[in-house]
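fyi for ur records
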Amino acid sequence: MKNSTKKNLSTLVNDIYDTVADLNIGKKEIPDELLADVTAGIGNAIIDWATPRDRSNSVLRMSSIGKPARQLYYADKYKESTPPDAATLIKFLYGHILEELLLFLVKLADHEVTDQQKEVTVKNIKGHMDCKIDGEVVDVKSASGFSFKKFQHGTLRDSDPFGYMYQLAGYEKAEGTDNGGFLAINKESGEIALYQPEELDKPNVEDRIDNLIEMFSIQQIPDKCYKPIPAGTKGNMKLPMGCVYCHHKLECHSDTNNGKGLRMFKYAKGVEYLTDVRSLPRVEEIVL
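which gave:
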């Protein structure tokens, strides 16, 4: 959507909030064209979510190069990984829908959105960026309350298990821009934050690609991505969150529990994956 007055990212979040407030009191209307656009976007997000992925292609994509090297190694070695459970898949779905709604609000606030899902390439590694907003590359994210703080307070560079910073750096390298960032929405509160990392905080994406290609060429398994953490106070150890969401945790941690592999216990707050059981938990154990 073209704007008569050129806007920039510096006012984006406040402009969205002001637009929503104006809608609520009848000072703003949703154009039919924009309503059709967001409806189609949500429909496409649902179709894409419901379409099985082709696992036979290379795991090296712009969206994945920032993930831990061992995770990528296992993703390449085991094309058919343990699929996420149904609840996690549903969470992915409403995350995609929220991201579509967020871009709808950006357009409604009269900021320019271009290059949605544009294919880009860096050193033969391909990716599809979310979009540009006001001429800058922007990656749109939906986040839990805890993860949202990384965008809100600009601390993503300190803890980035999914490699979002590499993803942004790759898109910007391909586009020749340097002032982009992440537009995030808190799935719990509805808050919105824009995080534009400093240039010095962005990783060198070309060096990363070279290192990963070398790793695959020599088939050397990297060290484990994270160390186990205490599970309670009785000596048990469990996977940290960075491993819990990995599709290859069972293969990667097959040496745990004296070679028996991970043991899974169903707590009220969710499943915990124990790497060392010293005291048997008093909850149901899941046996595959």
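The longest helix spans residues 86-108. thats all i got for now
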